[in-house]
Amino acid sequence: MEALVIDLTHGGINISIELSKLGFKVFAYDFYKTLKKNDINQLESYNVKIIKDLDEFKSISKYEDYKEKFYIIYPVHCPISKEEIAGKNIKKFIFLNHHETVKMILKQWNNEREKLDIPLVEVTGVKGKTSTVFILKEIMNLNRSLLILSSLGAFLFKDDKKIILKNNLSITPANIIETIKISRSIINPKCNIVPSEKFSKNEDYEFNYESVIWESSLGVTGLGDIGILTNLIENYPIAKNTSTAREAKKQVFNCKIVVIEEETLKKYYPKEAKEYEYKINSFSINSKNSNASVRVHSIEYSLDITTIDIEYNNLKTINGNILNGKMNVKTFAPGKHNVLNILSAITASLSLNIKSEIISKGLTNFKGIDGRTSKRIINNQVVFEEINPGLNVKAINCSMNMIKNLDNYTVIIGGKYGVTCEEINEKELIQLLEEKIYSDKIDLIFTDELGFNLKKQMKTEIPYYKNYNDAIKFSIKNKHNILFIYRSKYSDISKR
Description:
By secondary structure, this protein is an alpha/beta fold. The chain is built from 18 helices and 24 strands.
């Protein structure tokens, strides 16, 4: 078998190596030209042939003896079309995106997982992915050890201990494989935390966890017992405008049970709603005119503990049961967007046949995660932090609505450029902020690179501090509570 792996920047190196171990003759195309010498040496040690461009590949494939299928492996956001890759010989190739390829590589691992009845939850969406993962962690880790891949890194929660497998690991599909490998390497305490070199289809797998949660960008592998699509609040273009977030994330419907926000389902996936009705569990914060499997009857918001009355009807479980019932939960969810994350976790947990009492207990333990609507106290002033490299205008609006009826709050907005592939829409953000200044009478401070550019474009004169710490100190000194909205990796900010 032969394969061309496109894009070695977003996990393609790991995918190339694993395919080689499975017996593939692998060609690799460094589309973004990011390969380093060590990467090249590693690929060559696994007999992966690096090609300089697609013309070279076409030349090779033209004369290749096709005894077996030839796979084209590409990321879902690939800016190159199939026609550009394969030319006129498209029918000769099998095209798999990175998510699908990881599914193929993990076939044996998944078979063993299913034999051992280890539940797997996959999480994707535009917003709320990481929060949903860690809400689920509080529920699923109450009586089971848990392996997690998230935007915060890879972790093993076992025997009331948090074992950091690797910090700041991206959520590209290939890092699912990396997470599993690192976890296996620590089964023997004497081993160094180094990925195992063996990861083939003939290998005997060892599991030092009883549940698994994967957060993944732009879709899922489809291996999940539960696939969660938190929301699609923005159907942004990908792959040089040849595809969309909607198209990428519909891979969630390959999972056994699909958990999805009802509004997202109706707006973006009406066809899938009918086709996969038998395995969809939806959730909604709106009780009126809702047919969601899980919906809210009442919410009492608080910046500390929010109380939510929930009803679930005709909810499907992974073992074929249908559940109906009510729940009252108390948890940290100061805003509407936080409640939606809670609902996605509840729906997934019920789908896994987790008892409502355990779900409620887990939710009481959830206190937020650092930087994602987390709360700190500085000199008796409340500081809410929304620190996220992927912050967009809608997310900022949700955060600001959380405090709109509260007095004595300053909103500090800023951040860096270049932390994600997609920059924030500054024109839309400025429009929102001008409206908030007029309607909600907010106090606003700008900071850092993003704040500097926003200030230049605003009609209203807004104070600016180059250093966000100075902005925070000023607000605290004036006895103001703070909503700190900042585009950055939390790991960078946490060094302060």
